[in-house]
Amino acid sequence: MKKIKMLTGDRPTGKLHIGHYFGSLQTRVKMQDEYDCHVMIADVQALTDNFNNPEKVRKNVYEVLLDYLSVGIDPKKTTIFLQSMIPEIAELTVFYSNLVTIARLQRNPTVKTEIAQKKELFGESVTYGFLGYPVSQAGDITAFEGEVVPVGEDQLPLIEQCREIVRKFNSIYGETLVEPRAILSSNKRIKGLDGNEKMGKSLGNAIYLSDTDEEISKKVMGALTDPNRIKKDDLGNPDICMVAYYHNLFSKDEVKKICEECKAGKRGCVACKKQLIENIIKALTPIREKRKYYEQRPEELRQILMDGTQRAREQAKETMKKVKKAMKLDY
Ligand code: TRP
After folding, report:
1. CATH of domain 5-191+298-326
2. Range with the lowest mean pLDDT among 29-38, 184-193, 242-251?
């Protein structure tokens, strides 16, 4: 039986953190036996808001690849590939750009929010490339005939826009492209150490998969706890404590007892943090070991990316043939 095609990706702008792990990476690992999985390192898309920093993008291509492999995305099951080495995506982007209006792009809620956040980079007027990245993302998805696209909630408007492009293409040029369907890769969004709703690189509140013991320790020691609890025997409220929140993720067997002791004023925050540090380190150790294995084998790492990219390219070429035929460009 033919497996359903899955496609998703990340912009290589930084190392991945435990928010990604619980949010999307675990889902991908689970999906790889049942689906025909494609995971793209979207370096061209990363350049849309990092065009002035190509070194950053290049360096993070390998960081993200290391993170993928370290959590168990298996290159034998999942096609891991690099966007910039698939020129068909750029070509599709040009074709699709006729099927999207500027007003529609400007109304895309995700793009709108991001432009507002990037005033410093874009000033008064956003670049054509950034405004148009949903078109290029439609190229990413359709080049591989992605049927399901696991993404976070913020990406849903991009998948919706891709679906519109597909429908428009098919209505003009004939049934050619596959219309993708978004699936939420997780309904969990992991909060930051500071209690912020989002864990993010720019927010400085993240634990990275590659953090050392010392970094984890320092970050957890600085995490937000119940601000009303000053002395150990004050009664604590775990509902507003980030340490309790992370115990939920990393200390499943112990969390009930931990929270009871906290509420009864029988457990100090320092002891509680130390226990959490230990459990995070325990959980991340196998991931960090795998990372180290590949870090020490840069040639093998490179080969994995090139093999995946070659496989992906074959597929993109097939799609391009169909698209050009439909558009009467099959000279
Ligand atoms: N825009 C996605 C993000 O910022 C990354 C991405 C690029 C992507 N191309 C994709 C996700 C195609 C899903 C499908 O996280």
Report:
1. 3.40.50.620
2. 184-193
Domain boundaries, the chain: 5-191+298-326, 213-291
Ligand 1 mean position, distance from CA 99 (Å): 20
Q: Indicate the class that CATH gives domain 213-291.
A: mainly alpha
User: Whose alpha carbon is nearest atom 6 of ligand 1?
Assistant: 9
Per-residue confidence band for 187, with pLDDT thresholds at 50, 70 and 90: low
Reply yes or no on whether the pLDDT at 200 is more than 90: no
Q: For atom 15 of ligand 1, which residue has the closest CA?
A: 10
Q: Rounded to an integer, what distance in angstroms lies between the CA atom of residue 272 and that of residue 274?
A: 5
Give residue 8 CA to ligand 1 midpoint distance, Å. 6
- Check: CB of residue 56 under 8 Å from CB of residue 138: no
Q: Give pTM, 2 decimals.
A: 0.94
Which ligand 1 atom sits closest to the C-alpha of 146? 14
What pLDDT is attached to residue 37? 98
Is 183 in contact with 15 (CB distance < 8 Å)?
Answer: no
7 CA closest ligand 1 atom index: 14
% of the chain surpassing 70 pLDDT: 100
| Gap from CA of 288 to ligand 1 centroid (Å) | 25
Does residue 45 have its Cβ closer than 6 Å to ligand 1?
yes
CB of 7 shorter than 6 A to ligand 1: yes
Ligand 1 atom nearest the C-alpha of 137 is 9
Instruction: Please give the C-alpha separations between residue 157 and each of 56, 105, 166, 224, 244, in angstroms, as whole numbers.
Output: 27, 10, 14, 33, 33
**b/e for 239-250, b at 16 or more Cβ within 10 A?**
eebbbbbbbebb
Q: Do domains 5-191+298-326 and 213-291 have the same CATH topology?
A: no
